[in-house]
Design brief:
The structure is a homodimer.
Chain A (H helix, E strand, L loop, with lengths): L15 H24 L6 H8 L6 H4 L3 H24 L6 H18 L7 H9 L4 H27 L9 H22 L3 H12 L5
Chain lengths: ~210, ~210
């Protein structure tokens, strides 16, 4: 999407200026990920991000072509971070496949609690805010959901091979069902400022999995 | 919440001024319901609502104590409208209970399609936007979800009596599960600008209902 182009390096360190530019860009993206997750795209001012990172006002366009370009880079950053987190749980072969999903759910509960129910999921939040409004964001946001779905579907296929889910199940459908509902559960957890909706959704989801 | 107080009437029409004030207030709430559902609370300017209804700028405080007060009246209006819509489907005794739910789902699909996936659900939208931010809105929004859940739970209890859902099921839990996931499905439908997520969620939900 909007990843910095890989730098061609010689044997030494890259020129200081280029390295510093990339460091600052990364710092802006990291900070933007936090603020956008919490406050959304429209309400967040670029100035607030620049100020927090300590970058002079007016130099934003040195790093990004536009606020939208910045938003896309933030989505990309969150997607990579979250995919790595998912893999950490879902590829844990020491654990039975469905338990891996349950472990992910437990971890997510701790995460949302730790941030005092202020953040939730950047992709769900921006999907809600921009889904109906922006052609620019719609495709990239949906692509992230599809990527997460694929990872969960792989885990469900393993669960099927292990006999934890019945042969009649379609792992891709189940994974899509999971993400649709899970985003609803995160929305509700933010509203009630508690993890009950996450538990309720996860328990009902696992209880409804086909056994045959 | 913020309903206009019932007017004490004699036999004739109420004094013209009072009636006119209530009419204008209702028109502002109706218009606000549309705009807030589409654009959210923070982005919507009061001036835009006044202009659409043809009310002079600056007379807003004649009708509402604050923008928040207006927001609460809009939530109240949407909640009543939607509860009546739910009842129309869920109390249709000519139809088996689970089919009533399916009929509601079909109707919702047509509704979201008709508005070109721009609106979705006011309560879900504001929950996402304000759930983490506003103590004022959190309680009223959650109260609406709980009201809808109760109506759906009543329908599931009827389905249980009719043998469509197994005796092991907890209708209240199922209704909570439904609304958590359904809001996620509406979010996703707005993102993909299509009804597939609504179908996928509903099919998986009905398929997972306990039969025993």
């Amino acid at each position: 999407m909007n990843k910095p182009a890989p730098q061609k390096r010689g044997r030494g360190r890259p020129p200081k200026q280029v390295g510093a530019r990339q460091d600052t860009r990364r710092a802006l993206i990291r900070c933007g990920t936090e603020i956008l997750t919490e406050k959304g795209f429209h309400v967040t001012g670029i100035d607030e991000v620049l100020k927090r990172v300590g970058v002079p006002k007016g130099s934003f366009y040195h790093y990004f072509a536009s606020k939208e370009d910045f938003g896309l880079a933030v989505i990309d950053n969150y997607a990579s971070y979250f995919a790595a987190k998912l893999d950490r749980w879902l590829e844990d072969e020491a654990v039975a496949p469905l338990q891996r999903m349950r472990n992910f759910v437990e971890d997510a509960k701790h995460g949302i609690e730790r941030h005092h129910y202020r953040r939730g999921c950047l992709i769900g939040n921006l999907g809600q805010e921009l889904g109906a409004l922006s052609d620019t964001f719609r495709g990239p946001l949906e692509a992230v959901f599809l990527d997460w779905q694929r990872r969960v579907a792989t885990c469900f296929r393993a669960a099927q091979s292990a006999g934890e889910i019945g042969a009649s199940a379609d792992p891709d459908h189940l994974a899509a069902f999971f993400w649709i509902g899970w985003e609803g559960a995160i929305l509700r957890a933010k509203l009630v400022q508690g993890t009950e909706p996450l538990d309720l959704f996860a328990d009902a989801f696992f209880a409804g999995l086909p056994r045959e």
